[in-house]
Design brief:
The complex is a heterodimer of chains A (270) and B (83). Chain A is of the alpha/beta class and 270 residues long. Chain A has 12 helices and 8 strands. In chain A, a hairpin with a 6-residue loop joins strand 3 and strand 4. The mean pLDDT of chain A is 94. In chain B, 51% of the residues lie in helices and 17% in strands. The chains are: A alpha/beta (270), B alpha+beta (83).
Chain lengths: 270, 83
C-alpha cells in the first residue's frame, strides 16, 4: 500500500444515538478518499452488531475479524479485507458473535499504530452508546466526527458525546448533520443547521440531505458516493474535500426540483 | 413592526422547530451540568437562605442558568435592603 501523506489521520465517527448514519458516513468518506487514491482502512468496532461489511458490500469476503487479531488467531494483514472497487481501500471487520468487552483500548491503540505506516486515513466506526465500545473507539483517534440528525433525541445524544470527547481531551471535533430535509426546515418543522450549531457549538464539517437513493445503494452494497446523480453523494464528496483541507462551500440545499434533477442527470454541477 | 408581521405571517412561535429549540435549550443545560430541573429550585432556595442569614433581602431574588457556547454559569441577582 502506497501512502500519499506522511501522517495518518485517525478519525472516529460517533454519535451516541444509533441509526443516525455513522456506518453510512464511514463507508462513504472512506470510499471517496480511496477513489482519490488515498490509502484508507475502515475499522468496525461495533462488535456484536456489525454493519460496515454490509454497507460496503464486502460481507462475502470476510474471513477473520478484529477479535481474532487481538487473540492471535491471525495476523492483522490476514484480517484486512480488500475492497472490490478500490485497491486502496481496506476493511477490518468486527466480530459478530462476541461483545464490546472482548477488546481493550490498549489493543485498539496497538492495531492503529500497526496500521499507520500503511494508511493515510484510518476510520473507526463507533458503536452507539457511551460504554466500553465508545471508549475503545475513541482511544486511538486524533479526530472525531459527530454525526447527528436534525431531531431532538439525536441532538441531545450528540451533545453528550461532544462533552465526553472534550473530557477525553479531543481537540478536533466536527459535526456532520445527516438526513436534513430543507423543505421541512423552511416550513418550520425541522431544526435548521443554524439551530444545531447554536445548541452544539462545534465546527460544522458538512450537511447531507435526506436522499431516497441512500436506501437503494445500501440494498446493493454500493456506497452512495459512487452515484454521482444523488445529492447525498455530492454532499459526501464535499466533506471528503474538507477532510483533505480544501475549502468547499456548503451546497445549496434547495428542494430537489425537477430542473435540478435534470441538470444533475445531464452532468451539470449544482 | 416588521418583525411582528413576519411572526404573524410565518406563525413562527408555534412551529414545531421552535418548540424543539426551546426544549433542547432547557434539556441540554441540565444535561451538561448533570442536574435535574429540580436542582434549580433547590439552589435558589438554599442560596437565598444563605444570603438572608447574613443580610436583609428586599424584592425578588433571581437565580438563572446562562449558557455561553458549551459552558454554563449561574446568574444570581439578589437585591439587598439598604439601611
Amino acid at each position: 500500500m502506497e501512502k500519499k501523506t506522511p501522517d495518518s489521520q485517525v478519525i472516529v465517527v460517533t454519535s451516541g444515538k444509533g441509526g443516525v448514519g455513522k456506518t453510512t458516513t464511514v463507508a462513504n468518506l472512506a470510499t471517496g478518499l480511496a477513489k482519490l487514491g488515498y490509502s484508507v482502512v475502515v475499522m468496525d468496532l461495533d462488535i456484536g452488531l456489525k454493519k460496515l461489511d454490509l454497507i460496503l458490500g464486502l460481507e462475502n469476503r470476510v474471513i477473520y475479524d478484529i477479535i481474532q487479531v487481538v487473540e492471535g488467531e491471525c495476523s492483522l494483514k490476514q484480517a484486512l479485507v480488500k475492497d472490490k472497487r478500490f485497491p486502496a481501500l481496506y476493511m477490518l471487520p468486527a466480530a459478530q458473535t462476541r461483545n464490546k468487552d472482548d477488546i481493550t483500548t490498549t489493543q485498539v491503540e496497538a492495531i492503529c499504530e500497526e496500521l499507520k505506516p500503511d494508511f493515510d486515513f484510518i476510520f473507526i466506526d463507533c458503536p452507539a452508546g457511551i460504554e466500553q465500545g465508545f471508549r475503545n473507539a475513541i482511544a486511538a483517534a486524533n479526530k472525531a466526527i459527530v454525526v447527528t440528525n436534525p431531531e431532538v433525541s439525536a441532538v441531545r445524544d450528540a451533545d453528550r458525546i461532544i462533552g465526553m470527547l472534550e473530557s477525553a481531551d479531543f481537540k478536533d471535533i466536527k459535526l456532520l448533520v445527516n438526513r436534513l430535509r430543507p423543505e421541512m426546515v423552511r416550513s418550520g418543522d425541522m431544526l435548521s443547521i443554524e439551530d444545531l450549531m447554536e445548541h452544539l457549538c462545534i465546527e460544522l464539517l458538512g450537511v447531507v440531505p435526506e436522499d431516497r437513493s441512500v436506501v437503494i445503494s445500501t440494498n446493493r452494497g454500493e456506497p452512495i458516493i459512487l452515484n454521482e446523480h444523488s445529492s447525498a453523494a455530492h454532499a459526501f464528496n464535499n466533506i471528503v474535500q474538507r477532510l483533505l483541507g480544501n475549502n468547499v462551500d456548503l451546497m445549496t440545499l434547495e428542494e430537489d426540483s425537477f430542473w435540478r434533477k435534470l441538470k444533475r442527470n445531464l452532468g451539470f454541477k449544482n | 413592526m416588521f418583525e411582528f408581521l413576519k411572526k404573524v405571517f410565518a406563525n413562527e412561535d408555534n412551529s414545531s422547530r421552535n418548540k424543539a429549540n426551546d426544549r433542547l435549550r432547557l434539556v441540554l443545560t441540565h444535561d451538561r451540568i448533570g442536574a435535574s430541573s429540580q436542582l434549580m429550585e433547590t439552589l435558589q432556595e438554599e442560596i437565598i437562605a444563605l444570603i438572608a442569614s447574613h443580610v436583609e433581602i428586599e424584592g425578588t431574588p433571581e437565580v438563572h442558568f446562562i449558557t455561553e457556547g458549551r459552558r454554563t454559569a449561574l446568574d444570581i441577582s439578589i437585591p439587598l435592603k439598604g439601611r
